[in-house]
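User: I'm preparing a small set of examples for a lab meeting where we compare how different chains pack in three dimensions. I only have the primary sequence for this one, and I'd like the structure in token form so I can line it up with the others. Please keep the answer compact; I'll paste it straight into my notes.
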Amino acid sequence: MLYQIARKTVEPLSALLDSIGIDDAYAFSKKLFAPQISIFVYHRVGPQLHDWLYRSVNEYIFEKQIQWLKSTHTIISLEELVDLIRENKQPGGNVAVITFDDGYKDNYLYAFPILKKYQVPATVFLTTGCIDQRKLLWGDALDYIVLTTAADTIEHDLLGTIPIKSRKEKSSALFEIKQNIMKKIPNMQKVRLLEDLERELGVEIPEHPGDGIMLSWEEVRKMREGGILFGAHTVTHPILSNATFKEAKFEIEQSKHRIEAELGEQITTFAYPNGKPADINADTIGLLKQNNFTCAVTTLPTKINHNSDLLGLGRITTTNNYSLFKFLASGLYSDGIHLIGFHEPGCNQISGDH
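Assistant: Understood. Below is the structure token output for the 354-residue chain.
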């Protein structure tokens, strides 16, 4: 929903508001009179290495965003936010938390030096199987197959016939396959579908393609030594509500244990893959509680306050558009949709407790 709105309405509006300083003024007024808590989610920071790779926030834009947040918010760690909510404390000013999903190598190459420069804490949620096996996330693998194939058409029993002759057709096909198929089928079926497409479209993903794309454990340890915290994001990034209980248990527990083995410390934070209400169920919540996770984050831009559910904390998805970022981060967007009575489907009480 936010993406479609932003493309047609919010982007030009945010550019106008930024040009006259409205979002700066609004953020400072929030800081003084109605402090807000915001968690921001990044995936990649740095140059866009390949057109099939998850979209990146340019490192120069990222630095500007961090500078702006430092001037309008107090940036704290996710663990500090957990303590704030547990102790039922109201923030004394705007509070921001920085997070990264998946574990891309550019988090180390480009984001980490900037975070160190400004002494900003952050949490990186790792998809551990991609690090161990040096492989691509399934979404990047699908993009690689479709965007590099010379075929004009996808022919598959599950997908039907999909034209992919032009770049526009390929982009449309990818959206359809990801949103309406891949995110709704069991993980093993998703793996088989990727194998089918790779074979039928005549594409061979290079051996160990994740070498230059995903973090290594050595880089994870160096980031930890530099103050970055880490959380679990499953082993293979499945939609957990599509998994069996046994599969979900493996994904949650093994990702946690793998990071703990590498870092020698307890991992207590978790990010739901995809992170929408339909992706999370009672089994998932139960497994998180059994494994002593203190908090879990979604990808919903729901407001956070001292009463928020720690296993359903909302996050603001970041963007390479600086004006749009400021519009979202200032509180103008969330306060605006609240004022008109519109809201995204939320999970403010996913687990039923704090």
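A couple of notes for your slides: Residues 245-263 form the longest helix (19 residues). Confidence is low (pLDDT under 50) at residues 342-354.

User: Perfect, thanks.
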